[in-house]
Design a protein that fits this description.
Distance between the termini: 45 Å
CATH class: Mainly Alpha
Order of helices and strands: HHHHHHHHHHHHHHHHHH
Number of strands: 0
Shape: globular
Structural class: mainly alpha
CATH superfamily: MFS general substrate transporter like domains
Number of domains: 1
Strand content: under 5%
Largest sheet: none
CATH topology: Growth Hormone, Chain: A
Number of helices: 18
CATH architecture: Up-down Bundle
Length: 413
């Protein structure tokens, strides 16, 4: 049999392995639950008695509570993932956010809504980091990018399902369905095996999950910060431009009604294509850095273009939301680079905290946006904050380490 064919068959077995499938389905449910609030924000807030004039402010408050929970959860699950194992975290996190989202379906006050979005955020924070770490440590070096590409591509499509469910069912039922999906996946995860790299150090006296190790070495600290900040445009676009698209569309006199749910769906359709394209391109070019640079440039174009949509139709506006999604579709590469830069004893901590730091950055981003909006209006505020996010991301990209061919079987000391 031809050697290339043998390699191809082996690769096919790798990308369809249990860790990849489990991580992909877990991230699918994770994204469904993460994005669902943005989709049902307006109708759910109206249903619990929030005045129309306060929907934007209260929506941002609840979104920030969710992101604060994810920031805390990133620390919690990441450290536990390095101390106790990747698989245990996959069970704990999905149980917590499934229960929390079921509880969200029963809320009748802002205080209750905020509490359960915070708790759900803690649970949601553990899914991606543990899943990606498990995939990277189980796949051969040459297939790692394809593995995370599958996880991200399948995962972000959960937002598309969330939009369809939100349109077909009452907002409370949409939360119940999300919780039910999580519980079903929890049962499917029985029998998932632990990472071989982690088992190799599990019983050793090597320090595992020590978050402070990222700060006791200058080179390691800056590597960690750069890994975080290159992802800043992703959640600026999703958390500001897409989630708040109804308000932006009104300010730009877009003809027709623009709903957050439709904007999210089109954005995540673009993200599916972007994550697939960026993952495939990184394998083809054998480089993570080149792909990140390309998508940072695309993100800059997308942000600038968004503010030129004054007077367009809602259909064209939605189409551009799809382009924004594609442009920030380097999420898989972003997480892969972060995880590949650090040793096995701290990898889950990095893979969990990096994406959740970026999600948590929505809090200062929305705060800056809210502050600027009072003085220069919603459109100028969005543009200024977007430019700042892009400038920081390009600065972080400078001298970012290439990790495509890096051997991951080592520890940080």
């Amino acid at each position: 049999m031809d050697s290339k064919y043998i390699e191809r068959v082996s690769f096919s077995r790798d990308i369809l392995s249990v860790p990849v499938i489990v991580a992909a389905l877990g991230y699918f449910v994770d994204i469904y639950d993460l994005i669902l609030f943005g989709i049902v924000r307006v109708q759910s807030l109206k249903a619990i008695g929030v005045q129309a004039s306060e929907i934007l402010n209260q929506g941002i408050f609840l979104f920030n509570m969710q992101m604060a929970g994810m920031l805390l959860g990133g620390f919690l699950w990441g450290i536990l993932g390095d101390k106790k194992g990747r698989v245990k975290i996959l069970f704990g996190s999905i149980f917590l956010y499934s229960v929390s989202n079921i509880a969200n379906g029963f809320v009748d006050s802002i205080e209750g809504y905020a509490l359960w979005r915070f708790v759900a955020g803690i649970g949601l924070a553990g899914e991606l980091g543990a899943g990606v770490t498990l995939v990277l440590e189980n796949l051969p070096r040459g297939a790692r990018g394809y593995g995370t590409m599958i996880v991200a591509t399948v995962g972000v499509s959960g937002a598309i399902l969330a939009n369809y469910i939100a349109k077909a069912f009452h907002w409370r039922m949409a939360y119940f369905i999300g919780g039910g999906l999580g519980m079903a996946l929890l049962i499917m995860r029985i029998g998932v095996y632990e990472s071989g790299m982690y088992k190799h150090i599990e019983s050793s006296d090597i320090s595992k999950g020590n978050f402070l190790i990222l700060f006791n070495d200058k080179r390691r600290f800056f590597k960690y910060m750069k890994s975080i900040l290159i992802g800043l445009p992703i959640w600026f676009c999703v958390g500001i431009l897409i989630i708040l698209s109804p308000e932006f569309a009104r300010a730009m006199n877009v003809s027709g009604t623009v709903s957050a749910g439709e904007a999210v769906m089109y954005c995540y359709m673009g993200l599916v294509l972007g994550d697939f394209g960026s993952g495939f391109l990184s394998q083809y070019l054998r480089s993570r850095r080149k792909v990140v640079l390309l998508f940072l440039i695309l993100s800059s174009v997308a942000i600038m273009g968004y503010f030129t949509l004054g007077g367009v139709s809602s259909a064209l506006f939605y189409t551009f939301c799809g382009f924004i999604g594609f442009a920030v579709g380097y999420w898989a590469i972003f997480i892969t680079i972060a995880a590949e830069q650090f040793g096995t004893n701290i990898r889950a901590t990095v893979a969990s905290t990096v994406p959740n730091f970026i999600r948590g950055m929505v809090i200062p981003i929305t705060s800056a946006f809210q502050f600027a909006r009072k003085y220069i209006g919603i459109l100028n505020a969005g543009a200024v904050v977007g430019i700042l996010c892009m400038m920081i991301a390009f600065y972080a990209y400078y001298r970012l380490e290439e990790t495509f061919d890096k051997d991951l079987d080592y520890v940080e000391r």
